Amino acid sequence: MNHERLSMRLERVAIHIPKGSLLADIGSDHAYLPCYAVTNGLCEGAIAGEVVEGPYQSARKQVAMTGLEEKIEVRKGDGLEVLNPDEATCITICGMGGTLISSILESGKEKLGMAKRLILQPNVGAANVRSWLIENDWELIGEEILEEDGKIYEILIAEKGDPLRPYRVNKQNGIMFGPHLTKEFSDTFIKKWQLEKKHLQRIIEQLDESGRSGLETKRNGLKSQISVIEEVLEG
Ligand code: SAM
User: Is 51 in the pocket of ligand 1 (CB under 6 A)?
Assistant: First the structure.
């Protein structure tokens, strides 16, 4: 992967950056996404935020190597603290857990004033991100699911709006499975939830094999999660 050829995961993220955006990519590692977005004319300029020294230096090197210092500023700091409130119109936070993404958004809420679009790509725990969006009046306008190198990724795209609009059918299931992904019902979506079901079944087997007592509540919780997955998979 480099700034010319992104991973499929980041390419799918880039597709949702509105043309003319001022982009902030938080947790930018090598700054591949902002370099790609600027090089391809998706955004006017970008800020790459990174909290860890090593990845921050890699991002700086990448921007220098591509000669984009005029258009991309690499800033070191925690989450959205690297931004002024009126700087970014599109914010991407990718390749982290959903809990971390939600906590970055929560701690930097006051920096989201100018943001028109959030593109979030949690590696796990997408439900956390969907809940945060609902609680903070962001409407989930689209979702993607894709498989790359044996891993399944979800991408959530949100704009300010009616946060409950996508969840009219079943809010609880919508948060867990993704309202748009459920509707689309792609092969990758089916595969993800079949794998999750198997994983939960394996945990139940391990509980049974352990022979420990007092695990009934846990077992029942897992069984009801499996039933919900089965219901969704049956359509
Ligand atoms: N966004 C890139 C991608 O999707 O390929 C890099 C993903 S990498 C797995 C996650 C990056 O986020 C790491 O470089 C890590 O240092 C950075 N990171 C984690 N927590 C952060 C925070 N609170 N603020 C800024 N960067 C953070």
Answer: yes
User: What are the structural domain ranges in the chain?
Assistant: 8-166, 188-233
Reference 49, options 22, 23, 68, 77; nearest CA is 77
Q: Taking the complete model, does pTM exceed 0.90, yes or no?
A: yes
E strands along the chain, which residues? 21-26, 43-50, 72-76, 90-96, 117-122, 138-148, 151-160
CATH class of 8-166: alpha beta
> From ligand 1's centre to the CA of 99, what distance in Å?
13
- Please give the average pLDDT of every successive group of 10 residues along the chain, which has 235 residues: 83 97 97 96 95 98 96 98 94 98 97 95 98 98 98 98 95 98 98 98 92 85 96 92
**Predicted local distance difference test score (pLDDT) of residue 235:** 81
Query: CB of 201 within 8 A of CB of 226?
Result: yes
- Our answer on whether the CB atom of 79 is closer than 6 Å to any ligand 1 atom is yes
Residue 235 Cα to ligand 1 midpoint, Å, equals 36
* Strand-pair partners of 120: 93, 156
Phi/psi for 66 (5° steps) reads -90, 0
- Ligand 1 and 29: CB distance under 6 A: yes
CB contact set of 33 (below 8 Å; sequence gap of 6+) = 6, 10, 13, 14, 25, 92, 94
Phi, psi of 26, deg, nearest 5: -100, 130
Backbone angles phi and psi of 136, in degrees to 5: -115, 25
